[in-house]
Amino acid sequence: MTKRRKTKEIKVGGVKIGGESKISVQSMIKADPRDFEAIKNQIKALKAAGCEIARIAVPDIESVGAISKLKELAAIDKSYDIPLVADIHFNHKLAIESAHAGIDKIRINPGNVGNEDRVKAVADICREKRIPIRIGVNGGSLEAHILAKHERPTAEALAESAMHNIKLLEKFDFDDIIIAIKSSDVNTMVEANLIIAEMCDYPLHIGATEAGPAHMGTIKNAVGIGSLLQRGIGDTIRVSLSSDPVLEVLEGISILKALGFCEKSIDIISCPTCGRCRTEVIKLANELEDRLIPIERKLKENTKIKIAVMGCAVNGPGEAKEADFGIAGGDGEFLFFKKGEPAKKIPAVEALETLVEEAGKLVK
Ligand code: SF4
Fold first, then answer.
1. Do 283 and 214 share a structural domain?
2. The domain containing residue 172 runs over which residues?
3. Which of 82, 186, 260, 329 has the CB geometry, 3.0–4.6 Å to 279, for a possible disulfide?
4. What is the pTM of this model?
5. Residue 248, in any domain of the structure
6. pLDDT tens-digit map of 130-143
7. Ligand 1 within 6 A of CB of 318
8. What gap in Å lies between CA 144 and CA 9, rounded to an integer?
9. Which of 188, 177, 252 is nearest to 217 (CA)?
10. Domain assignment of residue 3, yes or no
11. CB of residue 312 inside a 6 A radius of ligand 1
């Protein structure tokens, strides 16, 4: 496994980011912050899907009320208990009010709040309440002098803006910082994060922003997040999509899983099928994926399982040697094998249940 970049450890509620901590998955609440019912339902769904930190837009003072109500709810019902990040643009008073309301992290760019007295006021309340600040830089947030110098939001301009904002906070003795540099252009996002990773030791929140609808957005994020994580860079991720936030979480977890960063996982090794296939591998692999989700959640930490679904018995067990167990299809029946060794023959109609049952034994 790639050696991860050394960073400061920052605590967001009960979740640690950076240092030795695992890479966390975040998403954003997309419901109107003034519609409490919608917000609480979305938080519950995000948490159930495996989201570890949720960001909430705070466009006005009314929205701050939702933070206190969510915190009260989380205290009595753990299914709503998730660290919350207030997403604030320009208005430092909303940051201060969110801090008083019990927020766990604030996303604000000090360079955009006006004069330094306002930056100091935000830094002071966050220091007092031990609330970290995420500096969120993107092409639209660049300071005028940085944009004038670079002419457009290049990777260098984005990294320079992040450093500018870091220095504004450090000037007021504040270093409980997480950096997010995002771009809808994957290459720019990766390049900017490589630059900032060399310039500071703050943890990095990574992901492509405005990445598009689910399919292409997921690909952009997987490529961008994946190439940074493979270099050991990145401490928390968000797959931003024009889609349901629950999907953002599921895709984020899948990216971590593909790179071996999940502490517990069930990986399906299924063949693409070819002319030798005499059984419904594609349907079976997809049904199995859905059935394994609840089992995967119940796995003990540091348990990684591979299950194979192969289209023919000629190449199947050999091609899936890495699997803990699996099936290889014949005509109307499957060969069930463990660690590459044949165990028994099962009728094709029993294949799905046999695999689910075998996986279920892992969580008993
Ligand atoms: Fe084709 Fe068999 Fe390989 Fe599947 S396992 S791709 S059916 S050869």
1. no
2. 9-258
3. 329
4. 0.92
5. yes
6. 999 999 998 888 88
7. no
8. 31
9. 252
10. no
11. yes
The count of residues in the chain is 364
User: Which tokens sit at 332?
Assistant: 């109307």
Beta strand extents in the chain (DSSP E only):
9-12, 15-18, 24-28, 53-57, 84-87, 105-107, 133-137, 177-181, 204-206, 236-238, 264-270, 303-310, 325-329, 333-338, 341-347
The one-character DSSP state at 237 is E
Q: How confident is the model over 16-61, as pLDDT tens digits? A: 999 999 999 999 999 998 899 999 999 999 999 999 999 999 999 9
Q: Same domain, yes or no, for 239 and 293?
A: no
Tokens of 5: 């970049």
Give me the amino acid identity at 337: F
Decide: 319 in ligand 1 pocket, CB within 6 A.
Answer: yes
> CATH number of the domain that 352 lies in?
3.30.413.10
How do residues 65-110 score in pLDDT, each as one tens digit?
999 999 999 999 999 999 999 999 889 999 999 999 999 999 998 7
Task: Find the 326 Cα to ligand 1 centroid distance in Å.
Answer: 14
The tens digit of pLDDT for each residue in 249-288 reads 999 999 999 999 988 899 999 999 998 888 889 999 999 9
186 CB within 6 A, ligand 1: no
